[in-house]
Structures are given as structure tokens and as C-alpha cells.
# Entry
Amino acid sequence: MKVGVPREVKNHEYRVGMIPATAHALTQQGHEVFVEVGAGEGSGIDDSEYVAAGATILDTADAVWGSSEMIVKVKEPMPSEYERMRKGQILYTYLHLAPLPELTTALLEREVTGIAYETITDDRGGLPLLTPMSEVAGRMAALVGAYYLQRFEGGRGTLLCGVPGVPPGDVVIIGGGIVGLNAAKVALGMGARVTILEMSADRMRFIDDLFHGAITTVASNPFNLREALTRADVLVGAVLIPGRSAPKLVTRELIGVMKKGAVAVDVAVDQGGCFETTRATTHSDPVFEVDGVVHYCVANMPGAVPRTSTFALNNATLKHCLALANLGAEEAARRDHHLANGFNTYRGQITCAPVAESQDRAFTPLSELL
# Structure
């Protein structure tokens, strides 16, 4: 199979869809890999490393898209890339289609096989290709929250760890999943007081055991959420419903009960965000203020640490990349139902129920089309 790796074009996105080790694994099995010139620069990977791995460097994105049966990316295609997609082409990347009807329409009209990292599952019921970026984003959430608490960035001027004689700041995390746990690890490591709001009693027991009681767990409900927000210095939205738009758990009215100069970090922004006040921002213009609360809602947080993120992502994506290249999309899906769960669009149909429900469109089971 001919596999293409274009340079990412999203604002300040420095990750790349494939590292040399992945290119080497593909070429060793007889596949051709085309990499756009400079695609790996942001992650510290030189073109010569791809060449040494057996890949071919092409001068333009048009050449990469035009030469490839499968495109391997990190982020969803931007509008400038829609015209490059063509019928039957496999697109293997993060898609986050639920809040993106325009991209969904483009994939359907061009009959692209859109395989989303974030809906591929595993035997444990997890999302193995989403996990590494959730780990990165969660850890970053605590760091950016602490940074924007600084007064010159619009924050209330609180040092999260405090100092002797002055109490530490409060970090409130909504959701005890991968993002929430990783945000908690870093926040606790910085010396903050950490509270996680979680709906599952079993998950709260797990968190309590994991951190030996150092983190407060609270049942997530409107009453407890309001109380927690009144004392939060940093709020982290870490809510995920696979494939669906995130629920708006924090209304504007609740943002209004927070301290002036508090920081709200919405890690769920890729799925539309879990704050009513969320709007997607970029690394070049990352924050805005609503009712005195600083909002950080960057839709590609891990892009700020691309070296770590790119290699962590490829550790997870390699297995299915090889299966798609070796078997083709259809046979790979027949053999692996977890990979089949990643098929969001196929032959002009939406094959991911949560995406269809979020956009009020028709859903066609993949099994009916294969």
C-alpha cells in the first residue's frame, strides 16, 4: 500500500503522524511511505531519518495526498485540505467529528474511509489510541492552569503549591478518567489541594486507593459541583463520552460563582467542550476571559510538546497502521472489531452511531457495508 504523511496545518500543530520507526516497519513489509518535506521538523525529526527508514520525501502536500492510498495524520483535516481527499482513500487520524459537521460532510461527499483514533477500542473497554494524548493533555492541564494563575496572565496571582504560612491553591477536576488522573498527578505533585468530581463510586474508590487518600473524591452532581467551583483556583474539564459531543456540565452561571482570576481549562474542547463558555482557541491565542475567569481551551494541547506526543502516539497507532496497510481497510475491519469501531465514515455513510446522533444524521452499521 502507498501510505502518505503530510505536514500538519492546524495552528501551532507540531506533531507528525508517523515517526521513522513506523515508516521502517511499513517499508520492511513492502509498503511505500511518502512523507511531505519537513513534516517531522516540529517533532525534531529530520527528513534524512525518514529516508534512512525507507520512506520517500515529496515536495508538496498535494503530492503526498495524491500519491497515497492511506493518509496518516495527527489532527483532523483543515478546510484547506478537504479538496485533497478522494474517493476510497483511507484517512487514519484523530477526527473528533461530533462537533464538526462541515468536516463530516466533506468526508461523506468524497466517500473517504475515515478511521478515528479516538473511537478505536480494546478488550478492556478502553480507548488505547486516545490514551497517550489524554495523558499528555491531562498533565499539561495542571501546568497551564498554574501558569495562567499568574497575575500578569490575568490570573488571581495564586501559587498553586503555596508557601509556609500560606495555603496552597485548589484544583478541581471534573471527571476521573485518564485526563483527570493525569491532571491530578501533576497538580498533587505541585502541592495543590486536589478534588476530583466523579459519577462512578467504583472509580472514586480506585482513585482513593491509588492516591492513598491524598486527593479528595466527591460524587459529581449539580450541588457538589457548585460548591467545588466556589473554591476552585483551577478548574479542569476532563469529561469524555466516546464519539459524542461533551455534555455542558459547567453553565455560564456556574462560571460566575468562581473566584475572579481563577483559571478554567477545558480539555474536552476537541469534543465541543464541557463548559458552556468554551470556544476553541489556539496555541497562538490560547486564552480568553468570561465573567472574570480565564479560559484555556486549546483544541490541540499536546501539540505544544510534540516530541513527547508524537512518539507516544506512534506507540499506540502502529499496530492498526500495519493491519490497514497489510490487509486493506475492509479486511482489517472484518478481522478486528476494535479497529472496526474506529470507522466513522465509509462509502459515503456515517458508521459511528455517536457521531450520527450528535449531528442528527443517519447511521449505517459498518457491518452492512462490508
